[in-house]
Amino acid sequence: MLAARLANGASKAGTDNAFGDEQLDVDLAADEIIFQEFMSCGAVAVAASEEKPVEAPMGGSSERLYSVGFDPLDGSSIIDANFAVGSIFGVWPGDKLLGRTGRQQVASCMSQYGPRTTMAVALSAVTTGGDAVAFELTFQSDVQRWVVTREKFDIAPAGKVFAPGNLRATADQPAYKRLFDHWVDNRYTLRYTGGMVPDVYHILIKNKGVFSNVSSAAAKAKLRLLYECAPIALLIEAAGGASVMAPSPGAASGGTPLSVLDVEIDNLDKRLGLCLGGKEEVDVFNRFMFG
Amino acid sequence: MLAARLANGASKAGTDNAFGDEQLDVDLAADEIIFQEFMSCGAVAVAASEEKPVEAPMGGSSERLYSVGFDPLDGSSIIDANFAVGSIFGVWPGDKLLGRTGRQQVASCMSQYGPRTTMAVALSAVTTGGDAVAFELTFQSDVQRWVVTREKFDIAPAGKVFAPGNLRATADQPAYKRLFDHWVDNRYTLRYTGGMVPDVYHILIKNKGVFSNVSSAAAKAKLRLLYECAPIALLIEAAGGASVMAPSPGAASGGTPLSVLDVEIDNLDKRLGLCLGGKEEVDVFNRFMFG
Predict the structure, then answer these.
(1) Residues B120 and B109: beta-carbon distance below 8 Å
(2) What is the rounded distance in angstroms from the CA atom of residue B284 to the CA atom of residue A195?
(3) Which CATH class is domain B161-289?
(4) Which of A44, A125, B108, B241 has the smallest number of Cβ neighbours within 10 A?
(5) Contacts of residue B147 in chain A, CB cutoff 8 Å?
(6) Is residue A219 within 8 Å of A104, Cβ to Cβ?
(7) A125-176, pLDDT tens digit by residue?
(8) Which GO terms describe its molecular function (chains A, B) (predicted)?
(9) Helix (H, G, I), strand (E, B) or coil at A211
């Protein structure tokens, strides 16, 4: 339904002088559709979104209740250019979000609206009782149903594909600049749409690569822990990859790398830089950024 | 129709072990659909595609006949990742393609299949009798019709957004490496999906930016003049931007920049490097690459 609304409603975003208001309408329409679904599903206790960053009660009354943090439409800067965009969902057991960590999620999901409508889903170790798993579903519009199109994402430790976010931070973050030069000098393949969903989705589908978003004093971190980073980190780690929180711009070097899944959501709007991808690729990031 | 076929047929491209064959199927299905349309439309004399690079007679018999070069589905490496992809068409008057230049086109078109189905169309100065123009259409699926969503693309001379293609060529092309560093050091915004259609579409929609694809001895030029470069150069120049053929890897420096529209199609499979975008941005490219 969201994909269909996007296909028609968002077309207005391409009209002249309509970037501001119309664009906003699409984000808010997606937000509203998703909150309505949660209100009617019965299993959601509270939900908070990047658009409405408060824990809103969803009236759930089933035996097992969940709490959801979500970004209704990630990639708002590229919607007008008709690039693939997506929604992100993190699901926690119980009735609160504040004070949790990404590792406590039972599942997370990233849907992508491109030529097709697809979805990458992660089930945590808590949920599977064994290893975490991540897989892909695709909506087949001719038969109106979701089908499994990839049974298991399995990210290789090393893989020379890079998505260097917030590249402008290299101008006043020497360590990030050196890491960036390392990727370029070693002939990594560049893929960077500017939307976190497609950029991470590319790593999952190709089973390799690295995504980074590092802040500097002049180029601040923009990614949200609850709505973007934690759900996506669960997907990547469930797919055999690694995640790490980037050091703060002002931090002294030599800090300890911490998985994004272990960062506490101490503020619903908490923002951070990070790196995600193949385990060896994240090790390279750590060497340059924490070394 | 092509977008719908893509939405369902291409979903197979996401299945395990299906990258080769299934992917090919989508490209070929698009090729077949487009050739069939040309055969039945009556106005096409000959057509050649990136998939079938020969001038095939299309049985046209109307008073005014046209010849078409096209890429049925550009961006095959990113279809499985569900990124936006597209088709490219260049239209020439008469009944041949070989020996023509891009400047002789009457029109060109780039359709894009993302969350929406959109199309950027250029009408040449020959066609308008005045200035060339470029505009956008969007298919509204709820009412099944195309509507104009941008009356005029108008690319600003300067604009700090860059899409650096074939980045690996910087490893053995020092001039391209210096240009790349110039973009990074000057805090240009990076957008590079790896598909020429969305990467150029971004410049049109944002009214600014620069796209480059430069070859080196180790990283060859892959873009085709007839099916990709000439139609897209018409779009960019009709939108007020500039295009230039990149110097050959082995060429001595100091050559003269030549618009992509003035390069002769002396081979239906001719390949080249290029730069496209705002006029001042292309001037910067020329200074680094021809200086």
Answers:
(1) yes
(2) 27
(3) alpha beta
(4) A125
(5) 11
(6) no
(7) 989 999 999 999 999 988 899 999 999 999 999 999 999 999 999 998 999 9
(8) fructose 1,6-bisphosphate 1-phosphatase activity; metal ion binding; sedoheptulose-bisphosphatase activity
(9) strand
For residue B171, the 8-state DSSP code is G
Residues of chain B with CATH 3.30.540.10: 2-150
CATH 3.40.190.80 in chain A: give the residue spans. 161-289
Chain A contact set for B239 (CB, 8 A): none
User: Cβ contacts (< 8 Å) between A135 and chain B: which residues?
Assistant: none
Q: CA torsion sign, A279 to A281 to A287 to A289?
A: negative
Q: pLDDT digits over B213-262, tens only?
A: 999 888 888 899 999 999 999 999 999 999 999 998 766 556 899 999 99
> Taking CA atoms, what residue in A is nearest to B140?
A8
Q: Are B205 and B156 contacting, i.e. CB atoms less than 8 angstroms apart?
A: no
The model's pTM? 0.94
- Residue B225 DSSP one-character state: I
SS (H, E, C) B69-131: EEEEEECHHHCCCCCCEEEEEEEEECCCCCCCEHHHCCEEEEEEECCCEEEEEEECHHHHCCC
Three-state secondary structure string covering A129-192: CCCCEEEEEEEECCCCEEEEEECCCCCCCCCCEEEEECHHHHHCCHHHHHHHHHHHHCCCEECE
The token pair that represents B213 in the structure block:
């694809």
Residue-level pLDDT at A9: 54
Give the three-class secondary structure for A223: strand
Q: Contact at 8 Å (CB) between B251 and B284? A: no
Alpha carbons B141 and B242: distance in angstroms, whole number: 34
Is the interface score ipTM higher than 0.90?
yes
Closest-CA residue of A relative to B3 is A115
| B128 CB-near residues (< 8 Å, 6+ apart) | none
